[in-house]
Structure formats: structure tokens, C-alpha cells
Amino acid sequence: MSVYDFKVKTAGGQEISLEEYKGKVLIIVNTASKCGFTPQYEELEELYKKYGNEKFEILAFPCNQFGKQEPGNNQEIQSFCQLNYGVSFPVFAKVDVNGSDTTPLYDYLKKEQSGLLTKAIKWNFTKFLVDAKGDVVKRYAPTTSPLKLEEEIKRLIEQAD
């Protein structure tokens, strides 16, 4: 099993298979518009502009489970990301990352890379790094700057060649 076995919904409600990203290094991140970590969108976009091509992708999943910091609907979230941070990577439909309504992708990510003391996602901007084979390589805390993942991203892209 890999991340490619899952389907997710775009912000427009269309279901797509993550198999579309096969062969790419991925960052999968749960996001929020009204969080202290929201400025990480800027660093994520910087990484995307630098590496985002046929070998790297960032997949953002808005979530309102932490302090109700993502109250908008999918269209409002898209507008916020583009207007405030110039986000050009995919921002999908809002999801739950914990609890009984957890999206299956996040159940899998948490099973593959548990957090410190718990499998649960603790806050917005928890980041999962996935290699080009679809294997979850590492989980990063919300406090970890996306730019700190750059060396690992480069290494995984080189391995994929």
C-alpha cells in the first residue's frame, strides 16, 4: 500500500486519485487560514517554485479541527491562499485529520509515521514527506519550517532519477 492507493476531493468537489502524483516526491500538509503557522504557506510556495515540476508536488488539505482556524468554505480557502500567498500548488477540499470522520489518506499517513507519543495530528501544518514510490518517509511537526525539509526533498528527488 502507498499514498497512490487513495482518492481525495479537489476544492471543486471532483474526486481524483493520488496515483496522478506517482513518481513525484510529495509534501502532504494539513493547513488553516487563521493559524499562527499560516505564514508557512509562503515557504511552501517558495519550495514549490524551486522544485515543483515533474518530480515534486505539495498537496495541502485544509482542516478546521484545531481552534476552528479554517472556518471558510472551499472557495473562500482557495481565494485566501491565492490572494495572500500566491499559492500555486493544489489546495484540496477541507478534511478531518483526526476522529471518526478522518479522511482515509490521513488514517494511512498517521499509521505510517506516528507523532511524538501519539498517532493523532496535533495541530495545523503537520507535514508528511513522501518519496517518489509513494512511501511515507517522515513526519514533521507544525513548528518545523518547510524550508528545513529542502535538503531531504533534494535528496529524494535525486534518488528518484
Strand adjacency order, main sheet: 4-3-5-6
Shape call: globular
Mean pLDDT over the full residue set: 94
In DSSP terms (H or I, runs of 4 or more residues), the helix count works out at 4
CATH class, named Alpha Beta
Q: Rg from C-alpha positions?
A: 14 Å
What's the CATH architecture? 3-Layer(aba) Sandwich
Number of E-type strands: 6
Description of the molecule:
This protein has one domain: Glutaredoxin (3-Layer(aba) Sandwich). The chain has helices at 40-51, 74-85, 104-112, 150-160; strands spanning 7-9, 15-17, 25-31, 56-62, 127-130, 136-140. The protein is α+β, with helices and mostly antiparallel strands and 161 residues long. The chain is built from four helices and six strands; from the N terminus they run βββαβααββα. The protein is globular and about 40 Å long. A four-stranded mixed beta sheet has the order 4-3-5-6. The model has no long low-confidence stretch (mean pLDDT 94).
Element layout with pairings:
Elements (H helix, E strand, L loop, with lengths): L6 E3 L5 E3 L7 E7 L8 H12 L4 E7 L11 H12 L18 H9 L14 E4 L5 E5 L9 H11 L1
Parallel strand pairs: 3-4
Antiparallel strand pairs: 1-2, 3-5, 5-6
Please tag this protein with its features.
6 strands, globular, 4 helices, alpha+beta, Glutathione peroxidase, single chain, four-stranded mixed beta sheet, 27% helix, 161 residues, Glutaredoxin, two-stranded antiparallel sheet
